[in-house]
Amino acid sequence: MRTLVLAAALSGAVSIVAFQTGPWLLAAITKATTTILIIVYAARRNSGDAYARAISLGLIASLAGDVFLLWPNQGFLPGLVSFLVAHLLYLYAFTGGLRRSFALAPAIGYALFAAVALGFLWGDVPGALRLPVVVYVAALVAMAATAASMALRSGARDAAFSRMAAFGAGLFVLSDTMLAFNKFAGPITLANVFVLTTYWLAQGLIASSVRPAAR
Fold this sequence. Notes:
Layout: H1 2-21, H2 24-45, H3 50-68, H4 76-97, H5 104-121, H6 127-153, H7 159-185, H8 191-208
């Protein structure tokens, strides 16, 4: 497992440097490779339950999104749909992980954050993309709020795994927010560094929320 984590970290670092310095093919290959390594990591932990299967499928959908977004203009909408599917799968997993009632506070917090971010960006989002963006943001907020609720409501046995899911979901929100501002509001200095670092940390934490299979 440690080898997979180190390999993913190295591949991600190479991808980030390559995106900054210009070898596009190297950046593209290592971007996909990093997510594939996270998928393998999750699969190695997979205990075969519904939670683990949904997380693994969400990571595979994310890989499709990664590939589509290598072409930021032509691939944006297919990439958005791929990540929408990923968030719905994560939402399904986190909903199944709830042991008690849903916590309202994280939902309110994430909804307010999303509303403020959308308010800033709305005038810069092309009309044809507004509905898809709103649907995507709603799914992202629901996913992150449910992960936070799962962490708040989990028992001691599940606490560590639930916290990893919650932190990962929060980092996903942060990553997507930076990506959106970079795309619609104007270029952010070192955007790829911040977006990809938070993105892979998010995916790694979500993958780590899968309880390892008993050996």
